Amino acid sequence: MLPWKQIVLLSITGCLAACTEDVIFQGPRWRTEPSDLILPISSPDQQATITCEAEGSPPPQYRWSLNGTLIDLGNDYRRHMSGGSLIISNLDKDQDTGVYQCTAFNTWGSILSRRASLQFAYLDNFKTQTVRSAVNVREGQGVVLLCGPPAHSGELAFAWIFNEYPYFVQQDSRRFISQETGSLYIAKVEPSDVGNYTCVVNNTVTREKVLSSPTPLVLRSDGVMGEYEPKIEVHFPDSVPAAKESVVKLECFALGNPVPEISWRRTSGVPFPSKVKMKNANAVLEIPNFQQEDAGAYECMAENRRGKNAVRGRISFHAKPHWLQTMTDTALSIEENLFWECKANGKPKPSYSWLKNGEPVAEGRVQIENGALSIAALNLSDSGMYQCVAENKHGIIYSSAQLMVLASPPSFSKSPLRALVKARSGSEVTLECKPQASPPAISLWKKGNEILCSASLRITLLPNGTLKIANVTRRDAASYTCIAKNQFGTASTTGKLIITEPTRITMRPTNMEIIVGESIVLPCQIACDPALDVSFSWAFNGQLIDFQRDSDHFERVGGSISGDLMIRNIQLNHGGKYVCVIDTDVESLSTSAILVVKGPPGPPDKVSVEEITDSTAQLSWTPGRDNGSPITGYIIQARTPFTVGWQAVDTVPEVVNGNMLTATVVGLNAWVEYEFRVVARNIVGLGEPSPASAKTRTEDAIPDTAPTDVGGGGGTKSELVITWEPVPEELQNGEGFGYIIAFRPVGTVTWTRAVISNIGVARYVFRNDTIPPFSPFDVKVGAYNNRGEGPFSSIATVYSAEEGTMQTSQSVSAAQIEVIWEALPAIPERVLGYEVVYWEDDTKPDTVGKVRISGNYTLVNITGLKANTVYYLSVAAFNTAGPGPQSAPINTTTKKPPPDRAPLNIQWTMIGSTLTLHWDPVVAMETESKVTGYLVGPSLLQSSDLSSESKMMVFTSAYLSAFLSANDNYLIQIKAMSEGGEGVGSEPIHIHKLSEFTVLFPSSYQHLIWLHCIPFQPCVIDLFRVREKRPF
Q: How far apart are CA 623 and CA 237, in angstroms?
């Protein structure tokens, strides 16, 4: 090759990658190809858009052809492009109808789109005619009314109007409208058919509608047509071509008297598939999604009692071509060979042709045979866009691919040798020489300056340029260079090989057993060549451990030659195989150990109650996992609606060992619903409990528990009140539970019995006018249920009710009432004291206040009451049997509350031992008690309690003059007095012993002036802030 040709060749291919794996194909690729269009012609301002869009780099350009002729868009004012799409304005049926094809091209080549047709739909009017000729027919005769549609383009749909709009002819077994011819067929005319018929033609594309002139149908008067055999007037052709996946409709209708019945069949006898539909009283056979197996001969049969007639036709299958195999973008080096093959299916079988950049491929160096294309010894001129074309009479399809022919000198820019290659002594080293070159380069190897060959048994040079050295030793350590060469140039790459000693594992992990919750370290330590980089990793049961994600349990510890694994707080799921993997630059080693984790047993399962009595339950269960340690025993727990959580229960045997899977629970309560669960244990500890068994109720039994705390007393005159603590529901042992109350006067023999069936009652009152007050009775209470009577309680002594008391009361203050009553005329040992009950309203609610006073007292003060409130009170005596009958209630109203304001503007003076006080009177509000006077309380300043060491002085006016010791410090406080009690106290006033003459301004002032006057000396004035209490 001439040098200038090499320069041109290299400049053209300089932007191409020399290795086919890195080639980026940038020729045109279709995104959207044109589609067939059919448009109404009625709108002159309408425009048509035929889409076409491709991608590539640089972005493709476009051109269009119509019926094979290139469209000159530069001189065509009606046509222009938007992107790659062709837009046609001011549509013209004659100029724009045809087949369009789009071409996309860039610097890499050109491709053709599929072909698309543009057609115009229209519908002319019927020829002007007032009324069509009448059709005369006899009753019973068949008739055909012709439509004769006008000139049109586009699919039509037909209907007929009877007499006037909107009365359309309804199709049935006697009437049929053919969508092929538009004609109306009446198999047998009846008198109701007489009238005018108008054919309605609809264009499904333009949605235009035209009506024919009316056709009169007249009934002849020369008699009725007799019966005759069917005559098929509508039938399908002898040969019907049908496209793949299309909808095929066959029409068949016959005239006849009686009206014929239509039926269909395949002459082969094969039944119709479920997709086939019969419409319009079987006059139309419809086959959706037509396929090859639907092709064949079909027969339509028309039959009445006068005979039958049939027509036959064959539906043939045809299909447009569709691809089975296409070629792909290909990059080959110069002088290599190309072979492409495409395959398509269709009916009839498609033929093939090839295009390069939109033009037919010229044969010569290019060989074409059916769908195969081959080119030997490629050169740069063979680069371009190629298309395989498959065509039959029903359609044409295109498949595109780009061919890039590459030419470049060798280059190691993308695959150089590693600068440093490490290998373990005794291993095999592979050095790859993979230059990018087109055509492929020839390579050779050097060790230092020595050219290598395969003369040595340990050294192998492979055809692809790879160098292999077996069983390497330290003598093989050197620099290695691969030199690559083709007709366009030479390149080389160098790497250094060093040989290291084998790595040894010096400490390995060992198989071990461990208890849940403990921590261990699995050792993994090595001795290695210092030139090696080492990394450690651990796998658990085949999965690499993620130390960041699993840091709660796993941590790698140790230095550069140690990869020990620490496992903290070991759980049962940590048991398994641990593998330490040591990776170096030249090898990978591993060592493993099995870790068995022992823990408490897993939960037993399938706990069931095999047999149950009133106090026992026979249980069985299946064992859970022993978790590395044999199960040594089981604990059985039970739960009822009356227990708090699960409780351990007694069993037989008392100790359930680990080999047992059954046990009997004892000590259960009768007629109680139980759940049971089982807990296993081993030397590690107790495991998780099993799921609960199904709820099971024990059998019923006679009560075995008597009521407790039997007592009573109190009530009203002539009553014996008996109380007891109810038997808990879990101890009632069955349904129909109740109480038996037995009582008798002390010293008698005969018991009086009473039965209470209400289990919620724990009190019984026996009334009898003959019962003397406070008379002792022997009382006992028993229990019963449907199974019988249970035991009675021990005998208790209960006294009958006493007689009532008389009482009076008065309000003492806003929060206090004094109650006085008359003592009972009874012996002292019969009365322990009195109980006063009080409440706020006369309905006597459940919540009341009580005051109990022991001894023979007849007065009590009730405190802590609400002010200005009506209280009701009642008094009863009590003894060991409880309170007796209460007295009749009386009511008393507490006083209004005292004023809630302290005296204000207090002024005072003290000369010697004489203290003088003045203040503003306190005026009570309507809701407060009237002020009756004032309390003035002086106390020594050393006491923190104003009430301590104080002497309260009562005054009716807002003025006070008193004598105090001049040698003490005092606190003075003033309160208003009323019937409701004491009011709010004023702020304390400080009286100091240093004061010979002191003036306190009214409290509204903010400063305090102290005058310290010593006889025969000047006075000292101190000014204080009243609130801050510090020198100003």
A: 81
Q: Longest Cα pair distance anywhere in the chain, in angstroms? A: 169
Q: Phi and psi dihedrals of 701, rounded to 5?
A: -160, 165
Burial class (CB in 10 A: 0-12, 13-18, 19+), 800: buried
Q: Which amino acid, 951?
A: K
Burial of 696 (0-12, 13-18, 19+ CB in 10 A): middle
DSSP state for residue 509 in the 8-state scheme: -
Measured distance CA(508)–CA(524) in Å, rounded: 5
Q: Is residue 854 part of a domain?
A: yes
User: Is 615 in the same domain as 539?
Assistant: no
Boundary (domain end) residue, out of 226, 243, 273 = 226
Instruction: Identify each DSSP E strand in 534-573 by its residue range.
Output: 535-540, 543-544, 554-557, 564-567
CATH code of 81's domain: 2.60.40.10
Angle value at C-alpha 350, between 347 and 354, nearest 5 degrees: 160
Dihedral sign (CA 70, 73, 79, 80): positive
Question: Tokens 């322990």 sit at which residue?
Answer: 832
Do 522 and 581 lie in one domain? The reply is yes
Is the domain of 398 the same as that of 384? yes
Peptide bond into 703 cis (omega under 30): no
- Are residues 821 and 851 in contact, defined by beta-carbon separation less than 8 angstroms? no
What is residue 750's DSSP assignment? P
Alpha helices in 56-196 (DSSP H): 93-96
Same-domain pairing of 31 and 116: yes
For range 794-800, the mean pLDDT: 90
Q: What whole-number distance in Å separates Cα of residue 505 and Cα of residue 592?
A: 12
Give the residue carrying structure tokens 């849940």: 516
Task: Say if CB 578 and CB 551 are below 8 A apart.
Answer: no
Alpha-carbon distance of 345 to 648, in angstroms, equals: 81
Last residue of one domain, picked from the residues 226, 244, 269: 226
User: What is the mean predicted confidence (pLDDT) over 561-579?
Assistant: 91
**308 is a domain residue:** yes
pLDDT in tens, 401-455: 999 999 889 999 989 999 899 999 999 999 999 998 888 888 899 989 888 887 6
Residue 648, beta-bridge partner list: 637
Q: What is the pLDDT of residue 807?
A: 59
> Of 889, 873, 809, nearest to 837 (Cα)?
873
Number of residues written out for the chain = 1032
Torsion angles phi and psi, residue 830, rounded to 5: -85, -15
Cα torsion at 188, 190, 195, 198 (round to 10°)? -30
Q: Give the 3-state secondary structure of residue 381.
A: helix
Take residue 1031 and report the two structure tokens written for it.
């020198």
Interatomic CA distance for residues 552 and 550, integer angstroms: 5
Nearest one of 624, 621, 630, 666 to 648, comparing CA atoms: 666
Positive or negative CA dihedral for 699, 702, 704, 710?
A: positive
Domain ranges, residue 210: 132-226
Question: Within a domain: residue 978?
Answer: no
Torsion of CA 347, 349, 355, 360, to 10 degrees: -110
Same structural domain, 347 and 369: yes
Asked if 849 and 838 sit in the same domain, the reply is yes
From CA 106, how far away is CA 55, in angstroms rounded? 10
Q: Which of 141, 370, 154 is nearest to 258 (CA)?
A: 141
Residue from 286, 76, 105 nearest 179 by CA: 286
Residues 820 and 884 occupy one common structural domain: yes
Domain count, the chain: 9
Given this model, what pLDDT does residue 769 score?
86
Residues 718 and 795 in one domain: yes
Looking at the domain assignment, is residue 300 inside a domain? Answer: yes
Distance, in Å, from the CA atom of 998 to the CA atom of 911, rounded to the nearest integer, reads 8
CA distance 976 to 929: 10
Average pLDDT over residues 120-124: 89
Cis peptide before 623 (omega within 30 of 0): no
Q: Which ranges of 75-136 does DSSP label H, i.e. alpha helix?
A: 93-96
Residue 805's pLDDT is 58
